[in-house]
């Protein structure tokens, strides 16, 4: 396609930027994806290109994130945003996340861009969350023009570290909320174009062919080939281009970030901060940093061959902080190291005693303690992958600890810095075939408050590996290892550690089906907590990261106050959670208005945890001058001891008139979940 056909001189609302919208990019099967090109205002190139490739609609819903491609164009780099097949304005059908079609399309997009006369031939992929997943998975295929990638909040293991399963347990809140959004999102129409007379029919065909992804996910309850597809953990050497890994201590994907920093053999840079799943310049938990400056330095290094003396790995060491769900900043300092893990980190063992203590030396005695599957545990915990409120960090853990088995250390004679992956080694037994072991590590303040440092879970039927299921047998002993989420936290001298064990972590996890939890052996070396402690702080070099700089304004947003309620239903003997959000987005330079409404409700039965119920509704409404499109998705899920019962309903309307309605229902056997 010639440069004159792209209308590169189209004006944009931002100085120094030209915008080409809905540029068609042909795929190998004839499908056309649509892209928006943000180009420097002057000249004809050639310029390097940075691509964000995701299904969250380039034209409206993600307008607040146009700020990066706009700023890139102002700095002489072309920013490109592409709708994944079957989403937004792209053709085709979105059959699943990270499908083989989608990854092949990504390769075709890169090849097409690299062949354009205005492109220098150097192309980078980047993104947050879904965009990071795609950047990593496409990089594994080694397309020739992919020069470097940035993966913020992505994963190397689609089963072990993502919103579907954790530790071989089914996620509850995340498994309901994310696919709920995607059912309604994938059913939205393409951006209306004045000369498209078949637009309404194209939309109807999309809705009639799209399928909810969560049925597929629930049919794969083990770490099988479905999840291994696209998981970098199968071969870290698959990526040969440079990788910038950006993670956060309060994100759901921290573990993946640290594994990649340690195991990727290509040139790698790391940045790990105190943030949530939001970008480092927008996280509700700070301190925030100049994220675009970090990105620009990386791309100038690899796309423009400019020198850069940034340290290979920088991380934020969190100092002790009081428990609160919505802190605005975490105390701490930035440090730089040359590699991960840093030199000077050593595993130190702590042992649980029969007297409820946590000690550095094994103590005499031997007993068994029963850990119950009490679904009240977890309500004081954090969201698995918090973004902005009502998502949250953990509250004071003392309420959860009332229904758990706990072990406390003596006051620490000196401060401890935990840096890396803790783990619990335990000897367990059970009277039921399915049980979970949920582990929390907390910092106990002198007045008794408990700040959650980290947590981990293991479905004990996956004790021999996440790909293998072996039900528990009465009387059979098993030695298990429960990995805890990677963390970085300094505990002051004079304070204490608390280890807490439970059989539930609700609403993060869908509860195990039986009220009885596992029995845990205590005494000697039977229950061992292994902590990665930084003993030598001299290996750390203190650094300063600049605060965020203003980026171009690309959308105006406003929202109703988010709602979050924890419920105790005394008559029915159950606990629950209700949450709702409403946001309105007006993209700059567009005559459209997007409304995003979400409500979610989860309930778990105290005496019969197999009876868990969930319901959510997601509504998207897009108002254009030509009319109003709306999709409404309702997802309901309930369980028995043997099955999950799942129902999905979808309604799409245009100017208040139904375009199509669809309904899906299926009962899926629990695979030792």
Automatic annotation (TrEMBL):
UniProt keyword list: Hydrolase
InterPro entries given in the database record: AB_hydrolase_fold (IPR029058), CocE/Ser_esterase (IPR005674), Galactose-bd-like_sf (IPR008979), Xaa-Pro-like_dom (IPR000383), Xaa-Pro_dipept_C (IPR013736), Xaa-Pro_dipeptidyl-ppase/CocE (IPR050585)
Domain of life of the organism encoding this protein: Bacteria
Signal sequence extent: none
GO molecular function: dipeptidyl-peptidase activity
Sequence ranges assigned to domain Xaa-Pro dipeptidyl-peptidase C-terminal in this UniProt record: 296-539
NCBIfam families reported in the protein's UniProt record: CocE_NonD
Record protein name field: CocE/NonD family hydrolase
Organism lineage string: Bacteria, Pseudomonadati, Thermomicrobiota, Thermomicrobia, Thermomicrobiales
